[in-house]
Amino acid sequence: MEHKASLWRDCLHFFYPDCCLCCGQRLIGTEKILCADCLGRLTYTGYENHERNPLNMRMKTKIPIRGASALLHFNKEGVIQKLLHVLKYQKQSEVGLFLGRLAGLRLIGQTPFCEADFLVPVPIHPKKLRKRGYNQSMLIAQGMNEILRKEISGDLLIKQERTQSQTKKSREARWANIQGSFCLNPEFLHEQRFHQQHFLLIDDVVTTGATSASCCQELLKIPGSQVSFFAIAHPE
Question: Which residues are CB-neighbours of 33 under 8 A, at least 6 positions away?
């Protein structure tokens, strides 16, 4: 029976092979999501090893965070751009978990990120959540949690209003567009278990830092809170 089952799986794989989500090449062996070639083309920032990395330094001029880092450099037409596109617009939810696991592996033992008590995904508006079917930042947090074993709090922050797309806006317009669009969930403000805690805010891409700064400001309203920030991708 096991032999027949194995033959059946091999036949299925032959006619419906898993393909690399970047180049389309058939995946072999233990490859998942990306083939070995595309996986090797990911460009890691190494920010987690350098307190004075550009993202951390820029964000600390806006908000008193403990630290900020990003996993990968975002390159147009690069592997990470393609992965994030299929994650957000082609309902490939497994990509979020995959990227989260990569991030978790990079953050093992890295201060201050490994010291966080809660992982907090940047929220999306309920209408977008219904349309997409998931929050990509939540999937990333879940993937990270498989490695880091932290508690995830997906209800601490609320996206209040639907802002316009940030994609083609200037830096100043992005900051204006995002102001007031995130708030702390009042249901949890006075919950003692959130007091004196360290929150690691999670997002897919950080550009100007407007979204992350707004969310961090809200989390810092919790008594005694500390906040760090981590994104999957950051432009070079």
Answer: 20, 21, 83, 94, 95, 98
Sign, CA dihedral 112-117-119-122, equals negative
The enclosing domain of 211 has a CATH number of 3.40.50.2020
* Separation CA 139–CA 127 (nearest Å): 18
Tens-digit pLDDT profile for residues 108-138: 999 999 999 999 999 999 999 999 999 999 9
Pairwise CA distance, residues 147 & 230, whole Å:
15
Whether residues 17 and 76 share a domain: the answer is: no
Mean pLDDT within 65-73 = 98
Residue 129 lies in a domain: yes
Mean pLDDT, rounded, of the chain: 88
One domain for residues 31 and 51: no
